[in-house]
């Protein structure tokens, strides 16, 4: 569904991604782990062209993306992103946040968008908060609105960048639950997270990034019980 080939990215002299190859199959859930600064966010941002690669190739659902020619708004419609800090529009209600992109980018009829928006808020358990502003929502509720907003573009892939890292511990579960449900429904997902229980339960594959290189790629059982790389072993000891 999404293929990254030989992705290189530097910021000035700092080489952050050193030739990443990552193939994500339809309906696959890939969890991306690695210590802070290893390049996880940069990789996700390259995948939806929020970051310009120095070199490399990205194919989405069979189509090679040319960032110079293709409309990036259309690419981002296919590759949704959920951020650590939600990034909701503060002056828009939950429902208005969800329907913003379908109406402005996809030119969806407003009534139709509202109907879709309500269905998505229902799906994340927040139909009753449709007319509430983000400032009146908990962190977990804001993140669930952000997930509904990403889904509103009917993406082919959803990228999550530490979606629960900014949440109070008691609010983490409700967001992971929604993500787990999406995974079960067959959404293709790449998830950066430190929630190892989620990784064990939901991931088809766990990938470890270390200094801009993929050093491990395995199913959860192999990843935790029989990792190949010494750095992965050290990482597992830290997080468990
Ligand atoms: P992770 O998400 O794994 O913590 P990041 O992808 O955020 O890692 O960052 C990888 C490295 O790239 C870090 O050293 C970070 O400081 C650097 N970096 C990230 N974004 C920028 C930027 N816009 N300008 C300069 N350096 C950056
Ligand atoms: Mg990051």
From TrEMBL:
- Name the Gene3D superfamilies for this protein: P-loop containing nucleotide triphosphate hydrolases
Keywords carried by this UniProt record: ATP-binding, Nucleotide-binding, Transport
| Signal sequence region | none
Q: Which InterPro entries match?
A: AAA+_ATPase (IPR003593), ABC_ATPase_HisP-typ (IPR030679), ABC_transporter-like_ATP-bd (IPR003439), ABC_transporter-like_CS (IPR017871), MetN_ABC_transporter-like (IPR050086), P-loop_NTPase (IPR027417)
Question: Pfam families this protein is in?
Answer: ABC_tran (PF00005)
Q: Which GO terms describe its molecular function?
A: ABC-type amino acid transporter activity; ATP binding; ATP hydrolysis activity
**SUPFAM superfamilies recorded:** P-loop containing nucleoside triphosphate hydrolases
Keyword Nucleotide-binding included in the entry's annotation? yes
**Protein name (record):** Amino acid ABC transporter ATP-binding protein
Species: Planococcus glaciei
């Amino acid at each position: 569904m999404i293929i990254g080939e030989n992705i290189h990215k530097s910021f000035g002299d700092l080489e952050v991604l050193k030739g990443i190859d990552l193939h994500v199959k339809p309906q696959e859930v890939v969890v991306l782990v690695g210590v802070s600064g290893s390049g996880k966010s940069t990789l996700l941002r390259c995948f939806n062209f929020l970051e310009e690669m120095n070199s490399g190739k990205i194919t989405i659902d069979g189509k090679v993306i040319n960032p110079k020619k293709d409309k990036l708004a259309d690419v981002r419609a296919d590759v949704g992103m959920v951020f650590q800090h939600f990034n909701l529009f503060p002056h828009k209600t939950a429902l208005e946040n969800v329907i913003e992109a379908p109406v402005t980018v996809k030119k969806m009829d407003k009534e139709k968008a509202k109907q879709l928006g309500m269905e998505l808020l229902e799906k994340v358990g927040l139909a009753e908060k449709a007319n509430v502003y983000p400032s009146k929502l908990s962190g977990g509720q804001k993140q669930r609105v952000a997930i509904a907003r990403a889904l509103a573009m009917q993406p082919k892939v959803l990228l999550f960048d530490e979606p629960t890292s900014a949440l109070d511990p008691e609010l983490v579960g409700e967001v992971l639950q929604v993500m787990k449900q999406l995974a079960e429904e067959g959404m293709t997902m790449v998830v950066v997270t430190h929630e190892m229980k989620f990784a064990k339960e939901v991931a088809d594959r766990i990938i470890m990034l270390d200094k801009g290189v993929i050093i491990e790629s395995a199913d959860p059982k192999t990843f935790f019980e029989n990792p190949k790389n010494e750095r992965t072993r050290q990482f597992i000891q830290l997080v468990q």
